[in-house]
Amino acid sequence: MKENKFMQIYEELVENIKQKKWPPHTKLPSENELVVTYNTSRETIRKALNLLSQNGYIQKIKGKGSYVLEVSRFDFPISGLVSFKEMAEKLGHESRTVVEDFELIKPDSELCTQLNSTSRDSIWKVVRARAIDGEKIILDKDFFLQKKVPHLTREICEGSIYEYLEKEVGLSISFAKKEISVDEVTEDDERYLDLKDYTHIVVVRNYVYLNDASLFQYTESRHRLDKFRFVDFARRGI
Question: Ranges for the HTH gntR-type domain (predicted)?
């Protein structure tokens, strides 16, 4: 039992965090205080705290102690092609979409590269802030080739664009290439999202293709750091 004592302490600390004994962003008791509370060694406490840190429950700051992180994160599927509307319905939380920008533009050189297009092509630009439980925590920047999506309106963008494209236009959306990075926040992030004090943001870049393998959409989906857990399912091939 002695060997597993740090696990027992870890599990009790996890339960206390989940029960909001120590709410998010508050400081845990010091190592010395935990040594006294659990009548154990400093090494055992450190093992428990390291496990808490590895599993995303706390952040250890040198010279300051351990601080509780927000653990009520939403699962964001990496491998699937899921619209925000579909994800929000699955989560069962109150959600809202705010269209911050909607226009037909000519692409700059960077966007031409992302969409494999030319400067003569017309591009639908759609910027939408996504709110879950009253907080704006996702900023989606979508770009669609007009030659693939001839018609689009602000009203459609307030709902589900994919639902419109598949059911009304008849497009067969097939697959996407995704890139995930952690970037510094931009002016748009600060303007449209409830960022709190976060200085970085998780960016998922999607290159979306139709059944004929033609690229028709490029998206930057920008997520507040503390609100999402990115999940995937992997099977080992033999």
Answer: 3-71
| Burial class of residue 161, CB neighbours in 10 A (0-12, 13-18, 19+) | buried
Give pLDDT tens digits for 177-218: 999 999 999 999 999 999 988 899 999 999 999 999 999 999
Provide the percentage of residues in the chain whose pLDDT is more than 70. 85
Contact 84, 98 (CB under 8 A): no
Q: Is residue 21 part of a domain?
A: yes
Q: What's the average model confidence in pLDDT over 149-157?
A: 96
DSSP 8-state secondary structure symbol assigned to residue 73:
P
Residue pLDDT, tens place only, 14-26: 889 888 899 888 9
> Which pairs from 23-27 meet CB under 8 Å and 24+ separation?
23/68, 24/68, 24/69, 24/70, 24/71, 24/226, 25/67, 25/68, 25/70, 26/67, 26/68, 27/64, 27/65, 27/66, 27/67, 27/68
Range of the domain at 52: 2-68
183 shares a domain with 131:
yes
Does the predicted TM-score (pTM) go above 0.70? no
91 and 47 in a single domain? The answer is no
Helix, strand or coil, per DSSP, at residue 117 = coil
Does some domain include residue 236? no
Give mean pLDDT, residues 45-74: 82
- State the total domains in the chain: 2
